[in-house]
Write a structure and sequence with these properties.
By secondary structure, the protein is of the alpha+beta class. The chain contains 17 helices and 12 strands. It has 2 domains: about 280 residues, no CATH class; about 130 residues, no CATH class. Strands 1, 2, 3, 5, 8 and 9 form a 6-stranded mixed beta sheet that branches.
Length: about 425
């Protein structure tokens, strides 16, 4: 269909021939980085087929967004909004923007990932969420050039200076959906999600589309009809495209292919159990998703350690907190290194004031508190795979993790499990001398 689209003059299509052992999405980005037709664009936006850019200014077109932002802006950081299943079970060929109108609220931090619309520049390296620059840590001039770019958020307000160097998630101070947001239809209907589980994914992650992933993406808290303004125009364009006999025949073949795959699901003998699993996952409240253990993005060594801890009885919510904590350490270290390469002072962030707590909770934390010392992912070989350095927190060196038995003994107590509180992944820096 893409080839026919190009023949009809609608798009420019470049094939993604994936060598054996390579992942489709990173390979496509690498090919695009080297493609003069792509790099000669005024603006570039890399996005997935389940991501729809929603422009909320003007008539809702990309040109309206470009017209609304400052002329000297180098990049626009567009924050995701997760759209859920709307409680729809059956696979259907209808428009996503009509079928799925319920989404996550602004405050849903797990949905604060971004996609970036940017002007191409010298030594660029395309990424899934945002562009980077080659040899930033080795070449101070490149790091400085990227640092000096002007990046703005979805309201046209400048992002923090250091964001141009690294980061792929919005933060509370920089979050904004006023002019643009990225509608992310990560699940669609229950059956559509099960079909994605069968067909695999562009980053070759086994079991990516499991129930824990569904729980995170199936957000239906608020009605969000921001894209419906384009439904009529979209249908008009579709009718124009499908008036072409070749394209119409390809569309019918595609629909028949998916309907046959749905039939395979029905006949698998596992359909009912898989559907029940997803519906149970969908019932997890949005304020409890921090306790959902999602490990598909981790290296195999870390996944193996998670499985070992689960087998020993460590609660999933404890493991989930540890993973979030480790990832925060990794991101902070990477950004500090890039700032240093750019010749900029590493910002010091004060620890947040301790939240008020009742006496019972305070006593429980006194008796048994989880610290980063208990995190088996920091300071280990597995952590090194993630790029996490050894760190010193509150005067204690994290050069190695404690024995698994010690973690199990502590984590399997009710007090330890309940003591994992506060903003996930937040590790305060030690006071400066």
């Amino acid at each position: 269909m893409l080839i026919r689209f190009e023949e009809m003059g609608w798009v420019k299509h470049f094939r993604n021939e994936v060598p054996k052992g390579k992942k489709p999405q990173p390979n496509a980005l690498q090919l695009a980085t080297a493609n003069k037709h792509v790099m000669d664009s005024e603006w570039i936006l890399t996005m997935d087929a389940d991501e729809f850019l929603s422009v909320k200014c003007g008539r809702g077109h990309v040109g309206d967004l470009i017209e609304a932002i400052d002329d000297d802006a180098d990049a626009v950081v567009i924050t995701w909004r997760f759209f859920g299943s709307n409680g729809i079970t059956a696979w259907n060929p209808g428009l996503a923007i009509e079928n799925y109108t319920k989404a996550a609220p602004n405050k849903f931090k797990k949905g604060w990932g971004v996609k970036t619309m940017f002007r191409p520049y010298e030594d660029i390296k395309l990424g899934i969420h945002r562009p980077h620059i080659k040899k930033a840590k080795q070449d101070s001039a490149n790091a400085k050039r990227l640092f000096d770019q002007k990046w703005i958020n979805g309201s046209g307000v400048a992002m923090p200076d250091e964001f141009s160097l690294s980061g792929w998630r919005s933060t509370k101070p920089a979050l904004s959906y006023k002019q643009a947001e990225m509608n992310h239809y990560g699940v669609k209907s229950y059956e559509a999600y099960l079909l994605r589980r069968v067909q695999g994914n562009v980053i070759n992650k086994p079991d990516k589309y499991d129930a824990s992933c569904f729980a995170l993406f199936d957000c239906n808290e608020i009605e969000t009809p921001n894209a419906l303004r384009h439904a009529r125009g979209t249908k008009k364009k579709m009718a124009q495209i499908l008036s072409d006999p070749t394209m119409s025949a390809l569309q019918e073949k595609a629909l028949a292919f998916h309907q046959e795959r749905v039939k395979v699901l029905y006949d698998s003998g596992e359909y009912d159990s898989m559907l029940t699993e997803l519906k149970e996952a969908s019932e997890v409240p949005i304020d409890k998703l921090d306790q959902v253990l999602f490990i598909q993005h981790l290296p195999k060594e870390c996944q193996a350690k998670v499985n070992q801890m689960q087998a020993a009885g460590v609660p999933d919510k404890v493991i989930a907190k540890m993973i979030a904590q480790t990832q925060t350490a990794k991101k902070g270290e990477a950004r500090s290194a890039l700032l240093a390469a750019a010749g900029e002072t590493v910002p010091y962030k004060k620890a947040e004031p301790e939240e008020e707590m009742d006496e019972k909770k305070r006593q429980r934390l006194k008796e048994k508190t989880y610290t980063v010392d208990d995190n088996p992912f920091i300071g280990t070989k597995e952590a090194a795979e993630l790029g996490v350095p050894a760190a010193k927190i509150q005067g204690m060196a994290l050069d190695s993790s404690p024995p698994l038995e010690a973690i199990v003994n502590a984590a399997t107590t009710t007090e330890a499990a309940d003591a994992v509180e506060g903003d996930r992944g937040t590790v305060p820096l030690p006071p400066r001398a």
